[in-house]
Design goal:
Number of strands of chain A: 0
Largest sheet of chain A: none
CATH architecture of the largest domain in chain B: Up-down Bundle
Helix content of chain B: 55-70%
Shape of chain A: elongated
Shape of chain B: globular
Number of domains of chain B: 2
Radius of gyration of chain B: 25 Å
Order of helices and strands of chain A: HHHHH
CATH topology of the largest domain in chain B: Cytochrome C Oxidase, Chain A
Largest sheet of chain B: 2 strands, antiparallel
Distance between the termini of chain A: 78 Å
Number of helices of chain B: 20
Chains: A mainly alpha (131), B mainly alpha (665), C mainly alpha (205)
Distance between the termini of chain B: 64 Å
Order of helices and strands of chain B: HHHHHHHHHHHHHHHHHEHHEH
Strand content of chain A: under 5%
Structural class of chain B: mainly alpha
Strand order of the largest sheet of chain B: 1-2
Oligomer: heterotrimer
Largest interface: A-C, 49 and 55 residues
């Protein structure tokens, strides 16, 4: 397995590959972009005067943009040889996270919506024998 | 004076005191068994002077084949433990009618049922599965090792100590009496103030983290360590199914870890996640635990499907029918298994829109499963079928899995589920899936791959006895439960009225369980007899069943470095093609890196055990020490860069020629 | 690509070797993805329990955005400097690497101290995790992130010792890549804590 010429070749290849993966330029883009997005979200929340649903959508879009920005520029997703396993695993994660969070909220809201209110519950319990 | 003594004791010992010892004869008996069995093993080791051997060959090993064997040994031990629980449950249910209250108190009965479920899922089904994966996956992908051998050993020892913690509850304190998923608010401190639920939480936590690490390990192993030429569509079907299963473990077990942690925080720090007051929401627990729990079912069944794909193709002497559709079926199952979890709690009261969505998804997931079943049947069609015992297990599986699966589709209809929820009908259904599916597959796998690992075959006559005892016993045990479920018998039932007329069915079911017990007995006999007669059953060719995938190209038992020379793969069923082509072998020997043995994995897991045990008993000072020691050991390990040694090419060549001559090393 | 490598061609064999070298980093990536699911569970719990204040304070009464913004800036900047540390390490500049890790560590510690100060302020005014379902889930979600930060800080110390002892060899470089991934990942999680817990909380969503 110890094959020197091959190891050298790999070193060359890896060093060829790495500048692509992490460069100062990319980190600066990621950092400045994140700063802009964070401050927009902060200032809009602190001083903006839009109604809630609009704000939620704007903030969600800002957060997701920053998520993608940092994935690409800080975490270097998408820069690898084919098959792009890192990318595939990441997409799978996003899908599972979406299913879990959205599903839980959907189910629990549905259940909560069908719960008795507290005052009705007291009324109901009082109407039952022995309670 | 007494007061100071008490304060000191509660600091040093937490909740632990003499009161923790078992209160009644049956529990004393259980406790003494738990102490006697390891004690006898210790005596045996001392008498045969094998402690050093145990340490060098097993405790410090990094070899996935040995780790696989240990997984299976633990799982078989736990099968006996869980089986003893069954004996008590069935006896109680057969006797506890009307005026008679059987042999167990209600609380003790609930503890036993909880322990049975927990042990059978986490320490038998998962243990057998991880054991077989460890043994076979590296061989089938033409690899010499897993991606992270040290992590692999740590995973096993975490699994092992999770098992020890469950069993410790028999000796000190009690176990959860909440059912195997410990729904709050019953599992909250207010209603379960003893250590039982804590034992449950922490043993699952340790074993769960072990499983998660193992899953990451095997995902990387399969994705990154396949031999040259084996692209995705040339992987053996077992490897595909393991990849699917491990993806599920990796993405479902964190949910379990989180949920258990939240319950522990409720119990220990007075938080209000699932409490019935102060803004907690117990329904969220049920939601989360099943968001893990449903994928868990497929985690267990996918590798079972993989095993049968190998077995059916080999024993039909045909290539697997519909390979591509099998792969897509696995992919579909992996995805769909994350979108059906609500069917475990249709009755919690969600609206018809939610229930209908999850009901339909549940029915849809039956389709890829059906695709697989038909593919196996088509593989058998016009094949040269040999009805050896692995194939018998397969046929038994088809019958039982189909019955159980149909019952499952029935319960996917929410209105029907409202009738059958938490009844014995449900119990019969999931036992048919997990025993008939997973356990049968694991037994088939053990028979099928046994010669590869140990170098000799299991006795076939006894193997057939095992199968028939299991099959008849199983049907006898669970068909009555379907009927009882229809009549309204609920699960975890420790007493019922004589006027219901259920006793006969419970007795029939109990006899069935006894037959399964006899099957397990014959199984142990089969192992013992086969080991005794191993010289007659030697596998000299390395390919006793005329196999198709790479593991059969190796000598049996497989050398510690797996492949002396890495194989070349250009098609599916790589070994089958190689056997037919008889090309001249031009591969060269090369240096092999082998991981050195180390006790650190064992020590880290042992410290995790001490941590968990002391948290259960609130011995906080020791818990802190254990946690800090774990961190220290991890740092120590990270400082060691010489974790491998090199086996020279010339030595590999020498060893290989010895192995090929059939030497036993 | 092949031109830059002179006569070397990027063959399947080379890619296989490259894959082998990067398998640890890939494994670590898979671990990070599983950790995302852990956080997702906690986010789901927070989303469900966020209005269960049980007479206790709501998010609107409790959070001060400028303070949270300060924490966010510390963490975001530390994520950037962690990247610079990796960059210096890849260029084999030992002192630069240590310097940037030092900066990252200081910023990370600042973040952690700010967070703990906020926690203790809440607890001191009687709004601990025992108060309500909302507060339990708040403390657990943000606290789990804080625990990860703590682990990251310990790792960073060990890493710096390791760099000093061994220099920037292949193993060190591989581990620096993983540490920087871990640190960036924690900032990614914080984006969502910042938005969902704090911004949405202050809006009263």
């Amino acid at each position: 397995m110890k094959n020197n010429s091959r190891n050298e070749a790999v070193d060359v290849m890896v060093s060829m590959h790495q500048p692509e993966e992490a460069t100062l330029k990319k980190y600066v883009i990621g950092f400045v972009g994140s700063l802009v997005l964070t401050f927009s979200a902060y200032l809009l929340t602190q001083y903006g005067a839009m109604n809630k649903p609009v704000m939620v959508i704007i903030l969600a879009v800002l957060a997701l943009s920053q998520f993608v920005l940092q994935l690409v520029y800080f975490l270097h997703v998408g820069k690898e040889f084919s098959p792009r396993l890192k990318l595939l695993v990441t997409i799978f994660m996003v899908m599972i996270v979406f299913i879990l969070v959205a599903g839980s909220i959907w189910i629990m809201n549905n259940l909560n919506g069908r719960m008795m209110t507290h005052s009705n519950m007291v009324k109901y319990m009082n109407s039952q024998d022995g309670l | 004076m007494m007061h100071i003594f008490n304060l000191m004791a509660s600091f040093w010992l937490g909740r632990l005191s003499l009161k923790a010892l078992p209160p009644n004869p049956i529990q004393w008996f259980g406790a003494s068994l738990i102490i006697l069995v390891p004690g006898m093993i210790a005596v045996l080791l001392t008498v045969t002077k094998r402690w050093k051997w145990l340490y060098k060959e097993w405790i410090t090993t990094q070899d996935p084949k040995k780790i696989g064997v240990m997984y299976i040994l633990v799982a078989i031990g736990m099968l006996l433990r869980g089986g003893a629980d069954v004996a008590l449950i069935k006896t109680q249910q057969a006797l506890s009618v009307g005026a008679s209250h059987g042999i167990l108190s209600a609380s003790h009965f609930q503890q036993i049922v909880t322990a049975h479920g927990t042990i059978m899922i986490f320490f038998v089904a998962m243990g057998l599965m991880f054991g077989i994966i460890n043994l076979i996956v590296p061989l089938q992908i033409g690899s010499r090792d897993v991606a992270f051998p040290f992590l692999n050993a740590t995973s096993f020892w975490l699994f092992f100590f999770g098992m020890v913690l469950v069993n410790a509850s028999l000796v000190l304190g009690d176990f959860a009496a909440t059912g195997w998923l410990a729904y709050p608010p019953l599992s909250e401190l207010r209603y379960s103030p003893t250590v039982g639920v804590d034992y449950w939480i922490w043993s699952l936590q340790i074993a769960g983290v072990g499983s998660l690490l193992a899953a990451i390990n095997f995902i990387v192993t399969i994705l990154k360590m396949r031999v040259k030429g084996m692209n995705f569509m040339k992987m053996p079907m077992f490897v595909w199914s393991v990849l699917g299963s491990m993806l599920l473990v990796a993405f479902a077990f964190p949910i379990l870890t989180a949920t258990l942690t939240l319950l522990a925080l409720d119990r220990n720090l007075g938080m209000h996640f699932f409490t019935s007051g102060a803004g907690g929401n117990m329904m969220m627990y049920v939601n989360l635990i099943w968001a893990w729990g449903h994928p868990e079912v497929y985690i267990l069944i996918l590798p079972a499907f993989g095993v049968f794909s190998e077995v059916v193709a080999t024993y039909s002497k045909k290539r697997l029918f519909g390979y591509t559709s099998m792969v897509w079926a696995i992919a579909a199952i992996v995805l769909l298994s994350f979108i059906v979890w609500l069917h475990h709690f249709f009755t919690m009261g969600a609206g018809s829109d939610v229930n209908a969505f999850f009901g339909i998804m549940t029915m849809i997931i039956a389709i890829p499963t059906g695709v697989k079943l038909f593919n196996w049947l088509f593989t058998m069609y016009r094949g040269k079928i040999r009805l050896d015992s692995p194939m018998l297990w397969f046929i038994g599986f088809v019958v039982i899995f189909t019955i159980g699966g149909m019952a499952g589709v029935l319960m996917a209809v929410p209105p029907i589920d409202f009738q059958l929820h938490n009844s014995l009908f449900l119990v019969a259904h999931f036992h048919m899936m997990i025993v008939g599916g997973v356990v049968f597959a694991d037994f088939a796998a053990i028979t099928y791959w046994f010669p590869k690992i140990f170098g000799f075959k299991l006795n076939e006559t006894l193997g057939r006895w095992v199968f028939w005892l299991w099959l008849v016993g199983f049907l006898m045990s669970f068909i009555p439960l379907y009927i009882l479920g229809f009549m309204g018998a609920t699960r975890r039932l420790d007493h019922y009225s004589a006027s219901l007329g259920w006793q006969q069915l419970f007795i029939v079911s109990g006899i069935g369980a006894a037959l399964i017990g006899a099957g397990v007995g014959v199984q142990l006999l089969q192992f013992a007899y086969s080991i005794y007669k191993r010289k007659d059953n030697r596998d000299k060719t390395g390919d006793p069943w005329d196999g198709r995938s790479l593991e059969w190209s190796l000598p049996s038992p497989v050398p510690f470095y797996n492949f002396a020379r890495l194989p070349e793969v250009s098609s599916r069923d790589a070994f089958w093609e190689a056997k037919k082509s008889r090309l001249k072998d031009r591969r060269k020997y090369e240096d092999i890196e082998i991981p050195k043995n180390t006790p650190l994995a064992f020590m880290i897991a042992a410290l995790a055990f001490i941590f968990a045990f002391t948290v259960v008993w609130h011995i906080w000072w020791l818990a802190v020490i254990a946690l800090l020691s774990i961190i220290t050991l991890i740092i120590v390990r990270s400082m060691d860069e010489q974790t491998d040694y090199i086996l020279k090419a010339s030595e590999v060549e020498k060893l290989d020629s010895l192995y090929l001559k059939g030497a036993k090393l | 690509m092949s031109e830059a490598a002179g006569e070397l061609k990027i063959t399947n064999e080379l890619i296989a070797k490259y894959d082998k070298d990067t398998k640890t980093v890939f494994g670590f990536w898979v671990y990070l993805m599983t950790d995302c699911v852990l956080f997702a569970s906690l986010f789901a719990v927070f989303a469900v329990l966020r209005h269960n204040t049980y007479g206790g304070p709501t998010a609107q009464n409790l959070f001060s955005l400028p303070y949270v913004m300060l924490e966010t800036m510390a963490l975001l900047t530390s994520s950037f400097t962690a990247g610079l540390a990796l960059l210096s390490a890849q260029r084999k500049r030992l002192k630069h690497t240590l310097f940037w890790f030092g900066v990252t560590f200081t910023l990370g510690l600042t973040f952690l101290v700010l967070e703990l100060a906020e926690f203790s302020r809440f607890v001191a005014q009687g709004d601990s995790w025992r108060r309500s379902g909302f507060l339990s889930s708040y403390f657990t979600l943000v606290g789990t992130h804080g625990l990860h930060i703590t682990i990251g800080l310990i790792w960073m110390i060990v890493m710096m010792v390791f760099i000093l002892k061994r220099g920037l060899n292949d193993t060190t470089l591989k581990r620096i890549r993983m540490l920087s991934l871990f640190w960036h990942f924690l900032d990614v999680v914080w984006i969502f804590i910042f938005t969902i817990v704090y911004l949405f909380g202050v809006l009263g969503v």
